[in-house]
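Notes taken during the Thursday session

The instructor put the following on the board and asked us to keep it in front of us for the whole hour. The protein is Tyr recombinase domain-containing protein. We were told not to look anything up and to reason only from what is written here. First, the residues (242 in total):
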Amino acid sequence: MRKTEPIKRKHIDENEIDKELMVVYTPKELSNYLDACHKHGNKKIEMYFRLLAYTGSRKSELLALVWEDIDFKTNKLTISKTLAEVEVSPDSKKTKVASQSAKTNTGKRIISLDKATISMLKEWENYQVESFKIMGIAHFEKKQLVFPNKKNDFCRPGQPNDWNTMICEKFNIAKKITLHEFRKTHVSLCAMADMDLEDIMHRVGHKDSKMTRQVYNFFYPEREERSAEKFAQFIEQEKNIF
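Then, after some discussion, the predicted structure tokens were revealed:
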């Protein structure tokens, strides 16, 4: 890979987004998917996809989480790390999964969680502690991984892809989206919920607004008309005050 030349990114015209195929889940489709995760009965998988859908985080950012990254008092989630396949040594072809700091300042972020997700996380933490006691596995408390593998180590970065395939096949979910499209789903639903573009960019850790804006514009085309109406309403309400 050291001898491989970097691929030059193709410039994407934001105005051409309506000509592209944008695949995301609608609110109903997302709800059905998360219901399927619940019915599957694996609490780790259910919790993982809940966080994926409700935070817009990258798949490996969630796999790198430890419990001290979650503040149950303030309902905040700190994203500061990610997982990656790294070489064991320069002379070896062997690799291992390791936790790395986020590469950019925007990648390091603190985002809010809703009360239902916080409640599910607390239940998952308690379940994890009790399960580890039964299996005789050491629990590292605040340094404990939120989503470890069976050996209480890092999951493979591709593991969530396998979970996604399993859920879709088991419950006959015809519309299967990728893990990256879960991020786009989060952006699209935030846009539908009338959230500001800057707030959405912060949640998903985007420094460049191009990708966020593409999804935002695609699913929220009427925002300019709404802005015009809001401005007109403001003038009518305030014209006799100042």
